[in-house]
C-alpha cells in the first residue's frame, strides 16, 4: 500500500473501529485515567466536534475533576479505570464562548490553565502572535526576516518558532521585537481575536466553580526549561500567588507546563508551589505516574482519533 492509499485508509479504519466499539473495548483492558488535552475551540476545531466528543464521553465514561484525580494519587487511593479528565490550556476566550457552554450542557468538569501575566497585559500567547504575524509575509519576506533575526535559514514558520522556543528569555524577547518591527502592518482580524484573545479576570470569575477548576499555565507562557532559575521561580510562584489572591485557585494547586517543557530545575520549583503538573507527554495516568509529569492525550481531534488514542496514546 502506497503512502497516499495509507493516508486514506487509516482514518477509515479508525472510524470503523470506533463505530463498532473495537477501540473502546481494547482501551478498557488498560487500567488508568486518561487526561485529554484541549486548546482552542472554534477555529479548525469546531464546537460541534467538541459537543460530539463530550456527549460520547458522558455516555461511555466517568469524568473525573483533575483535582480529585490528583488528590487520589497523592493519598495513595485507587483511580477509577477508564475515567476521563478534561483540560484546556492557554485560557483562551473561545474556551468561555465555545467550550464552557458545552461543559454546562453535558455537566462535565474541566480544568482551565491560564497565564495571569498575559491577562493583565492583554497580550496573546507569544507563539500565537508570532505565527499570525509571520503568516502575513510572503515566503521571500519571511526567509529574509528569519535569517536577519537568527543568522540561520528556515524554510517554514513552525521551524523558526521552534528555534525561538529554545532561546534564553531575553534573546526571545529581542527576537519578538524584531518580528513585530518586520510585520509593523499587522492588524488582527475578527477571526484572529476569536482564535487568540484570552479570557479576562471578570470572565474567569464568572465560571461555575463546580464545573471549572483554574490552574496555572505560568505568568507569560515561556518555555520554562530555557529560563534561568530565578525566572522559573518567578513564573511559577507569581502565577499561583495572583490566582490565589483573586480567589480563582483552590487546593490542590495545579500547574501545566507551557509546551510541556520541563527539566529538573522546573520540577523542583513546581514542587515548591503546586501539588501536581501536566506535561504534554503522551500516556495514561496510573498510580505509578510522577505527579509532576502527568501525561495527557490530544483532545482537539475527530472523535474516532480521540477514541483510538485512549487505546494507543502515542498514535
Determine and state the CATH class of the largest domain. Alpha Beta
**How would you name the CATH homologous superfamily of the largest domain?**
Glycoside hydrolase/deacetylase
How many structural domains does the protein architecture include? 2
Mean pLDDT: 95
Q: What's the N-to-C terminus distance? A: 19 Å
Question: Gyration radius, to the nearest Å?
Answer: 20 Å
Describe the structure.
- The chain is an alpha/beta fold and 315 residues long.
- It folds into two domains: 3-122 and 205-311, Glycoside hydrolase/deacetylase (TIM Barrel), CATH 3.20.20.370; 126-191.
- It is built from 15 helices and seven strands.
- The protein has helices at 3-19, 22-27, 47-60, 66-74, 93-106, 116-121, 126-134, 139-150, 157-165, 169-182, 190-196, 201-205, 229-245, 264-273, 303-311, and strands at 34-38, 84-88, 110-114, 212-216, 254-256, 276-282, 294-298.
- It has a seven-stranded parallel sheet.
- β5, α14 and β6 (276-282) form a beta-alpha-beta unit.
- α8 packs antiparallel against α10 (169-182).
- The chain starts with a helix and ends with a helix.
- The mean pLDDT is 95.
Which terms would index this structure?
315 residues, alpha/beta, TIM Barrel, seven-stranded parallel beta sheet, globular
Amino acid at each position: 500500500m502506497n503512502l497516499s492509499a495509507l493516508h486514506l485508509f487509516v482514518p477509515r479504519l479508525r472510524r470503523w473501529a470506533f463505530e463498532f466499539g473495537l477501540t473502546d473495548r481494547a482501551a478498557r483492558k488498560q487500567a488508568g485515567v486518561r487526561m485529554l488535552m484541549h486548546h482552542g475551540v472554534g477555529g479548525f476545531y469546531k464546537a460541534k466536534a467538541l459537543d460530539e466528543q463530550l456527549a460520547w464521553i458522558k455516555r461511555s465514561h466517568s469524568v473525573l475533576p483533575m483535582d480529585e484525580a490528583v488528590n487520589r494519587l497523592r493519598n495513595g487511593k485507587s483511580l477509577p479505570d477508564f475515567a476521563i479528565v478534561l483540560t484546556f490550556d492557554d485560557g483562551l476566550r473561545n474556551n468561555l464562548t465555545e467550550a464552557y457552554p458545552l461543559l454546562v450542557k453535558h455537566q462535565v468538569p474541566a480544568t482551565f490553565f491560564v497565564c495571569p501575566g498575559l491577562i493583565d497585559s492583554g497580550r496573546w500567547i507569544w507563539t500565537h502572535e508570532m505565527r499570525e504575524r509571520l503568516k502575513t509575509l510572503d515566503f521571500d519576506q519571511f526567509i529574509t526576516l528569519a535569517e536577519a533575526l537568527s543568522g540561520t535559514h528556515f524554510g517554514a514558520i513552525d521551524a523558526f518558532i521552534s528555534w525561538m522556543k529554545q532561546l534564553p528569555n531575553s534573546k526571545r524577547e529581542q527576537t519578538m521585537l524584531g518580528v513585530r518591527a518586520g510585520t509593523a502592518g499587522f492588524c488582527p482580524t475578527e477571526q484572529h481575536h476569536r482564535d487568540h484573545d484570552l479570557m479576562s479576570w471578570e470572565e474567569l470569575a464568572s465560571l461555575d466553580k463546580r464545573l471549572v477548576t483554574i490552574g496555572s499555565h505560568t505568568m507569560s507562557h515561556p518555555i520554562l526549561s530555557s529560563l534561568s532559575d530565578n525566572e522559573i521561580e518567578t513564573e511559577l510562584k507569581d502565577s499561583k500567588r495572583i490566582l490565589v489572591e483573586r480567589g480563582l485557585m483552590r487546593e490542590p494547586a495545579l500547574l501545566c507546563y507551557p509546551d510541556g517543557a520541563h527539566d529538573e530545575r522546573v520540577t523542583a520549583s513546581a514542587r515548591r508551589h503546586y501539588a501536581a503538573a501536566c506535561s504534554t507527554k503522551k500516556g495514561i495516568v496510573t498510580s505509578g505516574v510522577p505527579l509532576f509529569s502527568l501525561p495527557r492525550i490530544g483532545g482537539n481531534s475527530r472523535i474516532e482519533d480521540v477514541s483510538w488514542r485512549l487505546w494507543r496514546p502515542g498514535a
